[in-house]
């Protein structure tokens, strides 16, 4: 049986993830030394049963950066435990990794802006489309490419863990 000398797609992904981690480690402004551990702590915020305890699971924010709150559930989300618990998750992430970037490239501030608009008393009430706030001219997303490289670490680490486990 002959083996191919060209690496497969999983190998290339692993190489890309390791390069992303190396770039992040070299340019990081984080105080702690282990970026993987920092990201793992931030990701635990999404699954913390003490934070998310009463909010309906389908309305919860996750690593994707989407808020799947239908317009008819706006009052339930905004006037119930979901709003407080989602803000606690964002505070948890921000306290661990202030420049966290969700899969959809939203920042923590983009999510906060979306929640504010979706729960506000304007024409945007009930609209929890995070993507619209990322593309908004007032978006807080980073535009500097070197800064973006550091922010892709959370996504890279999550994908790496998903492939390995």
TrEMBL record:
- Domain DUF7731 spans what residues? 35-135
Signal peptide (from-to): 1-28
What keywords sit in the KW lines? Signal
Note whether Signal occurs among the keywords: yes
Please give the superkingdom of this protein's source. Eukaryota
Tell me which InterPro entries the record gives: DUF7731
- Note one Pfam family from the annotation: DUF7731
The keyword Isomerase is assigned to this record: no
The record ties this protein, via PANTHER family, to: OS07G0289901 PROTEIN (PTHR34366:SF2), OS07G0289901 PROTEIN-RELATED (PTHR34366)
What name goes with this protein? DUF7731 domain-containing protein
Organism per entry? Protea cynaroides
């Amino acid at each position: 049986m002959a083996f191919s000398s060209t690496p497969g797609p999983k190998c290339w992904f692993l190489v890309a993830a390791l390069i992303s981690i190396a770039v992040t480690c070299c340019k990081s402004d984080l105080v702690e030394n282990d970026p993987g551990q920092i990201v793992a702590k931030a990701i635990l915020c999404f699954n913390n049963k003490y934070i998310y305890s009463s909010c309906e699971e389908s309305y919860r924010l996750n690593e994707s950066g989407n808020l799947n709150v239908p317009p008819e559930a706006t009052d339930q989300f905004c006037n119930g435990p979901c709003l407080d618990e989602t803000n606690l998750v964002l505070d948890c992430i921000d306290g661990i990794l202030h420049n966290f970037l969700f899969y959809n490239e939203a920042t923590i501030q983009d999510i906060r802006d979306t929640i504010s608009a979706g729960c506000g008393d304007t024409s945007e009430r009930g609209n929890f489309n995070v993507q619209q706030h990322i593309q908004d001219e007032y978006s807080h997303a980073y535009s500097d490419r070197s800064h973006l490289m550091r922010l892709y670490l959370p996504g890279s680490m999550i994908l790496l863990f998903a492939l390995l486990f």
